[in-house]
């Protein structure tokens, strides 16, 4: 098998493809021949040395794969050899083989190519987790989505449209905002030209029910200023750095607001299995009807593996980047 190797702290150009012996299949697991994998910010952080793999998981980069099941441990009945599947791994996605928990796999929707399926799981499951499992958004409510043109942002915007939730998004350029609008965003805010808090207050003076924030920093109190009473702010990244500004406790208490943080990679196998089962039931059929779609920015060949990392670090993407072998 082949895999992408790296030295902690290396540059994107130093990623290299190496060869090693094939995996032996553990009990209760399945082996997938990986056709394509998604690239995520977590991968760039791991390469930089800031986000190590959870204990006991593969140190190889990669959190999502799409391919064909080639081997199944005894007793497993929900997948079989030859199935076209996609899903989550806690590590090891940048390889031609992956060992996967069968409850973390889903059948690729009819007609969807591997390269699209490779960009589905991480962003849509993250968005689904934030909106449904944590914030419990309901039809006709209002959501503010920062990083609107990111993979998670676009997935969250689509889910809002699918569920009848009004969405506002922030992005850095009109081209990105146009893409957000195509995915269902109703209020478009260029954060480089306008204060998102001022725009929200003018257009939606009643406020926001939930905020999906991957920025942090000085967005914290601005988010609180536009949240409704009993609203929730879900933080899932820290693009503005590790520390946020001084928390305005008066705003927090006056709004009775909830500020929470979430990740997906280090969740338990059972949590991921339940999340995937819920998502597959509620949302997966919509990919066959076209009500939900995977936003692909670029599809790269493995020989160009350095480019996805460089582009993510430059914030130069709109949607998902995937790589195929």
Brief summary of the model shown:
This protein is α/β, with parallel strands linked by helices. The chain is 30% helix and 26% strand.
Describe this structure as you would to a colleague.
The protein is of the alpha/beta class and 325 residues long. It contains eleven helices and 15 strands. It has helices spanning 41-48, 114-117, 121-134, 151-163, 174-182, 196-203, 219-226, 249-255, 269-282, 285-289, 306-313, and strands at residues 2-5, 16-19, 30-39, 64-72, 84-88, 97-100, 105-107, 142-145, 166-171, 187-190, 208-213, 227-235, 258-261, 296-301, 320-324. Strands 3, 4, 5, 6, 7, 14 and 15 form a seven-stranded mixed beta sheet that branches. The chain has a six-stranded parallel beta sheet with strand order 10-9-8-11-12-13, sandwiched between helices. β12 (227-235), α8 (249-255) and β13 form a beta-alpha-beta unit. It is globular. The chain starts with a strand and ends with a strand. The model has no long low-confidence stretch (mean pLDDT 96).
Q: Structural class, judged by helices and strands?
A: alpha/beta
Shape: globular
Contiguous low-pLDDT stretches (5 residues minimum) are none
Strand segment tally: 15
Tell me the quaternary state: single chain
Q: What is the element string, with H for helices and E for strands?
A: EEEHEEEEHHEHEHEHEHEHEHHEHE
What is the distance, rounded to the nearest whole angstrom, between the alpha carbons of the first and last residues? Answer: 11 Å
> Percent helix among the residues?
25-40%
Largest sheet, in brief, is: 7 strands, mixed
Rounded mean pLDDT score:
96
Strand content: 25-35%
Radius of gyration: 20 Å
Query: With helices defined by DSSP (H or I, 4 residues minimum), what is the helix count?
Result: 11
